[in-house]
Amino acid sequence: MNGPTHGRIVAVNGPLVTCEVDEGREVLQNEVAYVEVGGVRLKSEVIRIRGRQIDLQVFESTTGLKVGDSAEFSGELLAATLGPGMLGMIYDGLQNPLGELENDQGFFLRRGQYLPSLDQKRLWDFEPMVQAGAQVRAGQYLGKVTEGIFPHPIMVPLVLLGTWEVKEIRSAGQYTVNDTVAILKSIDSQTQQEVNVTLKQEWPVKRPMRIYEERLLPDTQLLTQCRLIDIFFPLSEGGTACIPGPFGAGKTVLQQIISRYAETDIVIIVACGERAGEVVETIREFPLLEDPKTGKSLMDRTVIICNTSSMPVAAREASIYTGITLGEYYRQLGLKVLLLADSTSRWAQALRETSARMEEIPGEEAFPAYLESRIAAVYERAGKVRLNTGETGSLTLIGTVSPAGGNFEEPVTQNTLKVVGAFYGLSRARSDQRRYPAIDPLISWSLYIEQMQASLNTRHENWVDLVKKAHNTIFKGNEVRQMMLVVGEEGMGLDDLVVYLKSEIIDAVCLQQDSFDKVDQATSRERQISDFLLLMEMVDHPFVFESKEQAKAQMTHLQNLFFQLKYCPFEGDDYRRYRSEIESILNGKGVSHP
Amino acid sequence: MIMEHSRIVRVQGDIIAVPATDIAYGELATVRSRRGVSLAQVIRLRGGEVFLQVFAGSRGVSTGDTVRFLGHPMQVAFGDALLGRIFNGSGEPIDKGPNLHALPRISIGGPSVNPVRRVIPRGFIETRVPMVDVFNPLVESQKLPIFAAAGEPYNELLARIGMRANADVVILGGIGLKHDEYLKFRIAFEQAGVLSRTIMFVHTASDPVVERLLVPDMALAVAEQFGVQGKRVLVLLTDMTSFADALKEIAISMDQVPSNLGYPGSLYSDLASRYEKAVDFDGAGSITILAVTSMPGDDVTHPVPDNTGYITEGQFYLRNGVIEPFGSLSRLKQLVIGKVTRADHGYIMNSMIRLFARSREVEQKLAMGFDKTPDDERYLKYGRLFYERFMDLNVDLGINDALDLGWKTLAECFRPDEVEIKQEFIDKHWPA
Ligand SMILES: Nc1ncnc2c1ncn2[C@@H]1O[C@H](COP(=O)(O)OP(=O)(O)OP(=O)(O)O)[C@@H](O)[C@H]1O
Ligand SMILES: [Mg+2]
After folding, report:
1. How big is the CA angle at A71 (ends A68 and A72), to the nearest 5 degrees?
2. Which of A508, A439, A431, A388 shows the shortest CA–CA distance to A235?
3. A406 lines ligand 1 (CB under 6 A)
4. What's this model's pTM, rounded to 2 decimal places?
5. Which of B:70-99 have CB within 8 Å of A?
6. Interface pTM (ipTM) of the complex?
């Protein structure tokens, strides 16, 4: 390349801008380009190249652009900046720090304002971990800085290929993200290439970071503290899950509660095309909440990528990739990372909007034909890996899906179900009845039970079988319920009725979990085990009733005891009292009717 | 710089194309035709061709007509002088009041608020409608539509709830509004004594379809300015389905591939960019948006209510003249329930709804001819009381009275161990 490539705008169609470059100039797919309007440079990305005609998706409003205006190509792919100082940040989809924009821009997001993703002035305490002369490869740790809750290794830049020799390494001291802390030399004596390593590095967001020894089978449970998930449809570290559901069924609340209580090192929240207000709750509340693991604020383990529904659509598409790239980076540091994306449908719609403007041949519901492969590529970037350093790291991905009309037979849901390992399907029927979280136990699944069997059975010797039995009771209870709708209660046998009543208890006290109650909102592993085993004693108990009325009255009483129990702090006095009351009933002393 | 161009080379639907250079995307123009002058907006540039959507529609436009580019995007006058005034769908006063030429003009459809500059809303708006206050409380800065089929009294409900919001400024955006309905709003504002702090942008059913597109943006741009100045603004938009239908017409004229029932794939983003103007500013005022989304065919999965539900912070589902407990939702309710309102609020709300769901099931069961059990009798009674005391829109009750009535109603029908409420609240509130 000889100097930056320039172009002239020939067409504007919403965020899609077409420009023409001179014959013979080089342009890269997914390269960043800037178009200029009234002295403001707007960031954009090359999304199609047809001869001299280059299509750009502009990440901002294109109002005011004219035919003939100029475009300048950067020669660089759309990339994320990675390094210490990302934790606790609130970024837009292109990794602009929204909190910093605030200082000079007032209430509104003015277009064309781009700030560095990392604090340029902050000094970090760097400690070297290698010596000059060492041979290193991409991802190997050269040193570390301490960032809040954990030591943040400084790696050989991930984009480097092959083996390098440490020519110089700086001594311990304070450095900004832009200071050189090491110089690497290519061992290929031909080129003698040298690279300056700083605390920060860049990675093109759309390229998966595959710098590891091997991918591992996800076989360890990731505890979310949501009972329905942890007990019935467990998720693994490095696994993937989707949460489809009609509007208002509880996708966001479920993700929010997982983001607080999941046992993981890092949480990345990608608010993709959803409500700004929901992000605000996280932004304002996380700093006030304590991470039980570190004792620090939850914000210290969290990064928020925020491209809400009224922010430009093209940047919404980028936001998911930015989030995943950050997640992969932390995984390289040997950490457990959880990425929550809400909602992947908005990302898919962004693809659709752009595709329509490019007049590509549409597929089902006007989504582009490549929707399936794009979705697969996103989820494939999750996983548990053994790094070149010998450590393991994992990136777990949970995406919500917002199907049109709440109907799961639509392209985004269907294509997502093909690639994820767990499916938490929310149902309108359950959310209407306020049975939260509205994950429908009759349709949801987790493929991880099999491969995590050993780890799950450390909860209790035949945990997996017990869960199956509970799940079966729910299925049977539902059958009875369906039958009751046809033949009425009078047409039902007493035994069937009892199965139904048992399934209702499981539903009320185990499946349902109140996200807004301080005690109930999160259930520790220990408590999950203890309460579930007690519940299974109830399921196994051979109740003897004389009549349906008696069965209903006594099971209602029992249900109420379980219900009160779940709102009591674990192992407290009230907890013990209700528990022993339940135990005495199950130990055959009979139900004492109030 | 103002430029005139004649030679309209293409007319398709309400879109026209003219050859022109140095025209900005989004720029406004006027089209002078036999039928008068209409505003038009640039929606696409392609080489030397400029495409415009004509707000008054293209009927009567001829190839010989003149297009005049104004050199700026759509703007609206802003100032306190707007209070009490009435405008049409293109922002012209229609109330014979003084002209507003001296006022500064602001652009519509501006950028979104930096999420970091929002605060968590906390203002409980007591409407004295129990189905709202108890089960789905309205919160200042919320965006909330009323979903209703044709024929439901949605505008009455909108006006009634709206008047309770006690806002500093009320802005009505009428989109395809029937003239009678417009007059009813005026009367309601007058009776509530708020006319002097009301601004109306009224596009009526007989006005050109494309003109509907401007109404929400004008109303919200004005609201935003007042909000930044520290005012608590309430925006009423009715009917947003008419707005979406105008988007559909434009999309079809532009040969866009529809995603669902003819609506463009961008419907979600188009609606969201309007509704997201609802905001509680950090250190300034707020904008609350109450809207009407009529449901074609009473179908909530129709693309307009469906996309709306994914955007707004809940919805009131109006059916058979009452707010349905199922399907209605205020997503901000947890911000005020038990925090601004009484501590027992959340528990009584959940319990009452759960029991009402069961009473509906019992009703269905009996409708199918099954025997009535003694339990059924109690559920039926509960269902009846619930309807009379809470659902009936004529009920006018403060929140605390409504909560007390809730406890009373539960106690009249059930035992404490049947209602699934934490013991401490049972102990405190269960009527003796
Ligand atoms: N676990 C829960 N416990 C109690 N209430 C809940 C729970 N989950 C959801 N809700 C209620 O349902 C409302 C809607 O939930 P949420 O915003 O998560 O829906 P959603 O599926 O994300 O909808 P959308 O697709 O429109 O974003 C919440 O505001 C809350 O009132
Ligand atoms: Mg949501």
Report:
1. 150
2. A439
3. no
4. 0.94
5. 73
6. 0.92
